[in-house]
Amino acid sequence: MSVTDLERPQVRAVAKWVRISPRKARLVVDHIRGRTVPEARTVLAFTSRAAAREVEKVLRSAVANAEANHELIGDTLYVSEAHVDDGVTIKRWQPRARGRVARIKKRTCHITIKLSPVDGVTPARRAPGTDEVEEVVEAPATESAGALTPEEQKAAAKTRRPREVAPKAEPEAAEPEAETEVAEPQAEAAPETEASAEAEAEENKEKPKRRAPRVRRKKKEEESES
Fold first, then answer.
1. pLDDT computed for residue 105 by the predictor
2. So what's the pLDDT on residue 145?
3. Spatial CA neighbour of 34 closest among 111, 116, 112
């Protein structure tokens, strides 16, 4: 190891027990080794392999460590080391024909990425107090910056004037309704109705009840048979 390697700061990020085969992860890691952080992000974004998503997470973690712990700028770094180690293999079984068993191996891996500044370039560091948000002062509006024309100002002034609300008319007093005379029921009508009801009852008693013709025919038939 040379003196330059000792003086050069390195930032590392590791993801352990990733449920991806080490061989599949190594195919993706080989594409970003030696590239700058912006280039590595672009390559991973357009890589169709599933392992690219996991490698991108580790790269973002390494950039966050460099910016938070070492006050470095992530875009000025490059991927100095990137390797994948084998993890524990999870063994499962699957039944097959004739009572046999097939072994299933679910492999895991450990992804390691190291970042360091470019050779011959001093590492760019953040200036103290850059995290504070600066107050933005708006410049006065001009005609080129979207200022209102005189005609638009007059129209806006008209719309801002308060509308005159007309006084509500007082409700007129309701005229007193004319009193309606209720006719009293005539007392003489009651006895007439009672007399008519009694007369109808007497007439009904005097009228003889008529039998149905069918009953008479049945009686004649019975007498003739006897």
1. 97
2. 47
3. 116
Query: What DSSP string describes the chain?
Result: --HHHHHS--EEEEEEEESS-HHHHHHHHHHHTT-BHHHHHHHHHT--STHHHHHHHHHHHHHHHHHHHS-B-GGGEEEEEEEEEE-PPEEEEEE-GGG-EEEEEE--EEEEEEEEEPTTSPPPBPPTTTTSPPPPPPPPP-TTTTPPPHHHHHHHHHHHSPPPPPPPPPPPPPPPPPPPPPPPPPTTHHHHHHHHHHHHHHHHHHSPPPPPHHHHHHHHHHHHH-
Contact (Cβ atoms closer than 8 angstroms) between residue 96 and residue 8:
no
Number of other residues whose CB lies within 10 A of the CB of residue 93: 9
CA distances from 144 to 122, 147, 157 (A): 43, 7, 22
pLDDT recorded at residue 30: 96
Phi, psi angle pair for 115, to nearest 5° = -115, 145
Instruction: State which residues of the chain have pLDDT below 70.
Output: 1-7, 120-124, 126-147, 159-195, 205-218, 226
12's tokens: 């590392």
Looking up tokens 């069918």 gives 214
Distance separating alpha carbons of residues 17 and 84, to the nearest angstrom: 11
